[in-house]
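Chain A, query sequence.
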Amino acid sequence: MSFTIEAIHGAARAGVLRTAHGDVRTPAFMPVGTKGTVKTLLPSEVRALGADVILGNTYHLHLRPGEDVIEELGGLHAFTGWDGPILTDSGGFQVFSLRDTLARVDDEGVTFRSVYDGATERLTPERVAEIQRRLGSDVAMCLDICPPAGVPRAEHAEAVRRTQLWAERQVGAPRAPGQLRFGIAQGGTDPELRSSSIEGVVALPFDGFALGGLAVGESREAMLETVGWAAPMLPEARPRYFMGLGDAEGILEVIARGIDMFDCVLPTRTARTGSALTARGRLNLRNARFARDSRPLEDGCGCPACAGFSRAFVRHLVNQRELLGLRLLTLHNLWFTLRLTAGARDAITRGAFDAYRADTLAALAAGPEEETWQP
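Chain A, predicted structure.
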């Protein structure tokens, strides 16, 4: 494993994670390709937007089409056409977020029902490691338990205990050539439980470490407070990953607290609801005020959607349920998110991250532009 920190500004870090399929410049946002594809986009388009790495979903890929099919066809990179780094999650979040599919959890693993056909499935730390080995991802996450916010403290404590138990079993399991493995700390926002989980997982020889079980329903204030004291507990010489965060404010705030990597479906899911992410907040393109608006989604944006199409046209596509509308909004939203992250990296390198963060957050706080458009 090679992770080099190239610049630091406050707690914010700019670095490079080297993997078997290329370098990941950090801070790094990872577009989510749940089933092997970032929805509506070609791999070449995702690369052109500035992504170094994408995320694949172990749970869904295991169920459909199956790791045996993917392995037979050359592994996840050959199967999907993405030749850059791929991180695969453990499947644990999906199992526990789809709690109605959960049949049983014990110290050996978790039994659940497939969301596709209801068939009984079983995941153990060893099984998850084997699935990800056969997928051939560059970074493989450990199986963990991710409780939602608001559950009793005893449930968080049990999640910490089992996550550590499973990490100890998975850390040394066979892996694909060059595959990195990251451990996960749980504990919610409880200082004692979170600290205990971090201390346990960083004692194991993982290539990187993640803060799991945050951005799952707790307040933003509590989340950021936790990241502020928890991130410095993770090793300085290893990448730090915040799981499941993708809004502009959240990205900048966790970077400011020392996080290197993050992922979220927010940019692509927001696109599929007909909204564009901009420096002044979200634009709901279904709104009638855009019906004759000849401007691009965002002035000065260099994405393919803004380069050639108006808000009025995108609104028309969205309201008529034309697939091109979803593609254009996805291109724009990922461009916005990836450029935001690249801008943070550049600002850290120049020693100007505090100003970049302040200016960006001020623009977001100012809110959307005027409600009416006069041509």
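The longest helix spans residues 323-350. The radius of gyration is 21 Å.
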